[in-house]
């Protein structure tokens, strides 16, 4: 038989299965909102199909947001969050005659970004600089704590508890003044900012940023290294390298000091290469390190010595290697080499070498004589080798001590050959000319060896003669006189013989007569020739 359930029991069961009307607000009781950010408050009911929502502040201030309802949910959106939202909010929900209400406190803060480090630039080593840490848009600023760290050290810390706090975001700064050193280069500076509000839940409450120090300084400890070393043999390759500590890196200029102390610019580079080094490459080299950022320069030098055996040896005579007797002449020798060369002057006579008392490679003869003529030698030497040069000095001597001899004598018979011999002392050998003085100054003969022959002299050869002896250095003249004695008168029988012979033949007589005539004429006039004989003494 069916069992009947009482209606009271049914109503009780329905009541027990129906959900009660409830209200919740999200987030919970309190929320921290970032000024300038977004915040969404959610009010939600259960156990009511069509709730009616309302939002208000406890002081009935403007909501500062936008409300949107959908079913059992009501949203209050704040975008952006401003100081108008710094309230306690109430959400009310009506379900029929029943009402529920929940409250939430919105607390504001502002800590939007990491600190900004500002370093005075450039930082100069040894000069005061500053580091500024900037924390933008902080609220509440009186709760801010900032510390500055350098490589883990804590050189500076500041709390802003004593600063008056307005209802506004603030940008806070801390400054740290210090004198940087070269050791600070690359060290890390860290700015740590904290907003340690314990009663508010938000993240992050600590922000930090870091930056490495860059300290500018001028060139220092500039040094030159060289390979193989500062003293090398000629033809070697020399490599010079210049280093300098500087920030920013220094510009390196190479130069060489000239004889007048001026500097010849060579190259802009850390390395200077001298290939096939010559003697002229010896000298003082300058490395100049320049940092334009600090307008500072540092120099360092090195002396390079190229070892060279004697070279370019030159031996000269001043004013000339051919001088007149009595003139002043200087024998001068020059040579180059490294180490410095030693010069020795010598006079060579056969196999004998006479060392001359010279000074600085110069030897002066004040009154040149014939014995000074000859070969002079210069020896230039150093520890690497030696070099020789020769020169021949010619001393010109004018004719002197001239002697004239006449053979067979100064007085001869007509038809005799007369030989005139001239000897003299001179350099170079002279030219000797025989001249007849009377009736006019007429050159008769010229001779290199000083010997003249007058053939078949006649009375016309009688007179004064000049023997002119001359060379580049001068002239000497000797006067001689020759007397020619006439022949005896011919016998009278000669003419009849000639007449008789002429009658013998019409054809032969003219020819014979011509021959006789020519023969006699030759005897009457005479003739002159240069004969071979010993030359003049020089």
What does the model show?
- By secondary structure, the protein is mainly β.
- It has 4 domains: 88 residues, Sandwich (Immunoglobulin-like); 98 residues, Sandwich (Immunoglobulin-like); 87 residues, Immunoglobulin-like (Sandwich), CATH 2.60.40.10; 131 residues, Immunoglobulins (Immunoglobulin-like, Sandwich).
- The protein has 3 helices and 39 strands.
- Strands 25, 27, 28, 30, 31, 33, 36 and 39 form an 8-stranded mixed beta sheet that branches.
- The longest helix is centred in the last third of the chain and has 18 residues.
- The chain is rod-shaped and about 205 Å long.
- The termini are far apart.
- The relative contact order is 0.07.
- The N terminus and C terminus are likely disordered.
- One of its GO terms (cellular component) is apical part of cell.
- Keywords: Cell adhesion, Cell membrane, Disulfide bond, Glycoprotein, Immunoglobulin domain, Membrane, Repeat, Signal, Transmembrane, Transmembrane helix.
- One of its GO terms (molecular function) is integrin binding.
- It is a single-pass type I membrane protein.
- It is found in: Cell membrane.
């Amino acid at each position: 038989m069916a069992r009947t359930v009482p209606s009271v029991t049914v109503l009780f069961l329905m009541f027990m299965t129906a959900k009660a009307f409830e209200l919740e607000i999200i987030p919970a009781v309190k929320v921290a909102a970032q000024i300038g950010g977004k915040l969404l408050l959610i009010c939600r009911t259960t156990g009511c199909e069509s709730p009616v929502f309302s939002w208000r502040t406890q002081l009935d201030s403007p909501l500062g947001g936008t409300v949107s309802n959908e079913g059992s949910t009501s949203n209050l959106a704040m975008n952006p969050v401003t100081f108008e939202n710094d309230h306690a909010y109430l959400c009310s929900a009506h379900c029929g005659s029943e009402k529920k209400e929940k409250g939430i406190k919105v607390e504001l803060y502002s800590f939007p970004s990491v600190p900004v480090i500002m370093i005075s630039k450039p930082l100069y080593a040894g000069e005061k600089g500053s580091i500024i840490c900037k924390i933008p848009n902080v609220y509440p600023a009186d709760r801010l704590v900032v510390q500055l760290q350098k490589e883990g050290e804590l050189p500076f810390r500041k709390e802003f508890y004593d600063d008056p706090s307005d209802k506004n975001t603030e940008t806070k700064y801390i400054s740290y003044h210090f004198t940087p050193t070269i050791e600070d280069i690359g060290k890390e500076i860290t700015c740590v900012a904290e907003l340690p509000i314990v009663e508010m839940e938000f993240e992050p409450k600590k922000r930090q940023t870091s930056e490495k120090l860059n300290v500018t300084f001028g060139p220092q400890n500039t040094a030159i290294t060289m390979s193989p070393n500062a003293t090398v043999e000629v033809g070697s390759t020399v490599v010079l390298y210049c280093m300098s500590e500087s920030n920013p890196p220094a510009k390196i200029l190479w130069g060489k000091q000239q004889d007048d102390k001026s500097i010849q610019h060579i190259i802009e580079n850390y390395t200077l290469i001298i290939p096939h080094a010559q003697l002229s490459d010896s000298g003082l080299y300058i490395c100049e390190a320049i940092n334009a950022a600090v307008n500072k320069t540092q120099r360092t030098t090195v002396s390079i010595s190229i070892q060279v055996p004697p070279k370019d040896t030159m031996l000269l005579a001043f004013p000339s290697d051919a001088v007149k007797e009595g003139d002043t002449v200087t024998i001068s020798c020059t040579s180059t080499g490294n180490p410095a060369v030693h010069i020795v002057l010598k006079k060579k006579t056969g196999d004998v070498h006479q060392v001359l008392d010279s000074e600085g490679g110069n030897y002066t003869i004040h009154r040149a004589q014939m014995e000074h003529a000859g070969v002079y030698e210069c020896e230039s030497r150093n520890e690497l080798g030696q070099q020789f040069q020769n020169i021949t000095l010619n001393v010109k001597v004018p004719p002197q001590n001239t002697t004239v001899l006449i053979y067979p004598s100064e007085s001869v018979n007509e038809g005799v050959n007369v030989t005139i011999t001239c000897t003299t002392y001179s350099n170079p050998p002279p030219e000797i000319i025989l001249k007849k003085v009377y009736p006019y100054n007429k050159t008769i003969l010229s001779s290199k060896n000083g010997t003249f022959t007058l053939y078949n002299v006649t009375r016309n050869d009688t007179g004064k003669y000049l023997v002119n002896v001359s060379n580049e250095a001068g002239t000497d003249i000797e006067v001689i006189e020759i007397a020619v004695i006439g022949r005896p008168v011919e016998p009278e029988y000669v003419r009849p013989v000639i007449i008789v012979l002429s009658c013998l033949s019409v054809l032969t007589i003219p020819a014979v007569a011509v021959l006789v005539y020519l023969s006699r004429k030759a005897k009457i006039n005479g003739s002159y020739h240069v004969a071979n004989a010993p030359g003049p003494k020089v």
